[in-house]
Amino acid sequence: MTHIRTIDAALLQRLRTLLGHRCELDGQVWRLIDIVPGEGLVVLESDLARPPIQMDQYGRASHRANAIRQIRILDPVEGALTLEMQDLLDCLKSTLRA
Question: Which of these, 77, 89, 80, lies nearest to 7 by C-alpha position?
Answer without folding.
Answer: 80
